[in-house]
Amino acid sequence: MAAMTTPPLAKPRGALFSKPNSILTIVSAAHAVNHAYSTLMPLIYPLVVAEFKLSYSQIGLMVGIASATSGLLQMSFSYLSRFIPRRVLLGGGQLVMAISAAGTGFATNFNLFFLGNLTARIGGSPQHPVGNSILSDHFETKRRGFALSAHVSGGNIGTVAVPLIGTFLIANYSWRVTLWFFAAVAALIGLALLFLTNENTTHDENAAPHSRGSLRDIKTILANRNVFFIFLASTIAAGGRGLGVLITYVPLYLHEGLKLDATRAGILFTILLVGSVAGPLMFGRLSDQRGRKTMLLLIYAASTILSIILTRVGATWLLPVVLLAMGIVVYAESPLLQTFLADSTQHLDRDLAFGLYFTIAFGVGAFWASVLGGVIDRFGFDAGFYVMAASYVAGALLLLPTREVEK
Question: How far is CA 276 from the centre of its chain?
Fold first, then answer.
């Protein structure tokens, strides 16, 4: 079958974002908006429950369907990047998110709110596979760790900022106005990606051209030893991943396990999230110098030890120190795995590899959250954190057969 390639587009006139660092800035800003939406909606749900007289089961069903749909669609955007320029997929997704969020602000019943939330999450689906693909092409291997880690940190900035900004806007203007404000920001980023960004050049001359996207391509990708074990490590270590499990159960542990009041628990959770911004940047730079595998093994070892320590310090002065350290190391794992994957697919179809990675990672992340919920219900929070620690150990063991990629 003849090779298929993304249709070439002329550089947009007046392209403000054309050099690697400027493209990193706009793609990371889009990631921050993506995370901001995911963090903003839980602040709105209690108000919607009261206004529309909903049950928690209805909210849970909506969140579950939206998350699953968003995760499973990521593979499709990797395929679409063969025919549609990636900046169009990413910018168009941001505009879909903006329009959907604005429409959700006008919702007069649960069905309309459900539809708006679902469509907004679909709009955010291209961010991880497409954003990482753009950055992997624009940054040489020796700087790729910094670039993909900065992309993750950009998203985490959105996570940290929203609890403060979103709470203020909701309290002073209503949840509807807050969604309209968010929609305006998302629209500006989307328009900048569409009309002010040039993403056609590439530093990676060894990258495979966009090709068939067939089962044979997937088998070729999985035949690569590094890629195979990276996928396995990502699947198992999702049992303690920051953006999945940790962000769900640490607040519950602070509230229910340690019986802290809402203010203190909120401050401590924010400290964890501050670490999530600093950690990827720090370890991303170190991985450019010392190697992805080396830093990942260090991260898994530190994450294991800190997960166990967290169950022992209680509500003492050491708790914020442990949470900050956990935020730094645990949130650095995913961007480094992504960078290791990008390095290992120089002669393969990288877009397809990213699509597979994020589809699997998001699906398994939801599975782990359910498993850990059952463990905590039956055996308590300590057992839950021990399972997280075990997942880090297993992730490290699965990376042992991999090889560092020469820069």
Answer: 11
Do the Cβ atoms of 121 and 206 come closer than 8 Å? no
CATH number of 20-195: 1.20.1250.20
- What is the Cα–Cα distance from 78 to 218, expressed in whole angstroms? 12
User: pTM of whole model > 0.85?
Assistant: no
The answer to whether the 20-195 and 215-399 domains have the same CATH topology is yes
Each domain of the chain, given as residue ranges in start order, spans: 20-195, 215-399
How far is Cα 397 from Cα 235, in angstroms, rounded to an integer? 13
Return the pLDDT at 203: 44
CATH topology of domain 215-399: Growth Hormone; Chain: A; (1.20.1250)
Compute φ and ψ for 168, nearest 5 degrees.
Answer: -65, -45
Using one digit for the tens of pLDDT, what is the confidence trace for 60-101? 678 768 877 887 787 788 778 778 888 899 999 999 999 999
Tokens of 392: 């880090």
Which pair of tokens denotes residue 90?
């990413």
DSSP string for 157-177: HHHHHHHHHHHHHHHHH-HHH
Burial group, residue 251, by CB count within 10 angstroms (0-12, 13-18, 19+): middle
